Amino acid sequence: MTNPLLSVKGTLISGFIILAVLVGVIRIYYEFIA
Amino acid sequence: MEIYITLVLMAHIFSGILWIGILYYFNFGQALKFPQMEASARSNAVTVLVPHLLQLFRWSALSTVVFGIALIIGFGIDRDGYYSSGQFRSIAIGGTIGIAMALNVWFIIWPVQQKIIAATRATIADGTPAPANQPKWARTALLASRTNTMLSIPMLFFMVGARNLPSLWGN
């Protein structure tokens, strides 16, 4: 398994990055646009 | 209505824990330790343990989605303006991710795992050599499973956030 994204740690980090992006987009929308 | 919502919510949470529990076992247990097991023990696990877990896995995935949809309908009937609430928006994001994960289970992980199980059974039964594609199947299953583990983090956040984090959606 060469891709570090496929390791357990990489999977967890990627999951939290996806979460941070989603929450970031929502918050920015409600703070500055809506 | 209250008893309907409570029962459906319980069923949704129970199925969800069963599903994601098995997903985490696959990713944090099996995927790491299967390669270190003796070949005979591993074949035994692949033909006895894994098919049983996959049955639980895909049916709990389906029932989580079905109870989840039933819950949203129940809330919609019970609460005025539910579909324009922040709670529903959270659920909609978590639910979309959850449905993508369930589709992944039913249409990618399960078909590929079936092939792996059949090939392993054939090897045990009459020594048929493993098909050349088997490592590819295993990799597809691993990728799909890892993707689901990744997606489970935002999915759980939005499911729990729906109830406990109303400030996510403005003030």
Radius of gyration of chain B: 19 Å
Q: What can be said about the biggest beta sheet of chain A?
A: none
How many domains, in number, for the residues of chain B? 1
Per the principal axes of the C-alpha atoms, what is the gross shape of chain A? rod-shaped
Helix-strand pattern of chain A, N to C? H
The greatest interface here is:
A-B, 15 and 19 residues
Helix count of chain A? 1
- Write down how many β-strands of chain B occur, each being a DSSP E stretch of 2 or more residues: 0
Element string of chain B (H = helix, E = strand): HHHH
β-strand percent of chain A reads: under 5%
Number of helices of chain B: 4
Structural class of chain A: mainly alpha
Low-confidence stretches of chain B: none
Structural category of chain B is mainly alpha
Helix content of chain B: over 70%
- Roughly what fraction of the amino acids of chain B lie in strands? under 5%
Oligomer: heterodimer
Task: State mean pLDDT of chain A (0 to 100 scale).
Answer: 85
Structural write-up:
- The complex is a heterodimer of chains A (about 35) and B (about 170).
- Chain A has about 35 residues and is mostly helical.
- Chain A has one helix at about 10-34.
- Chain A contains one helix and no strands.
- The mean pLDDT of chain A is about 85.
- Chain B has about 170 residues and is an all-alpha fold.
- Chain B has one domain (about 1-170).
- In chain B, about 85% of the residues lie in helices and about 0% in strands.
- Chain B has four helices and no strands.
- In chain B, α3 runs antiparallel to α4 (about 135-165).
- The interface of A and B includes residues 11, 15, 16 and 22 of A.
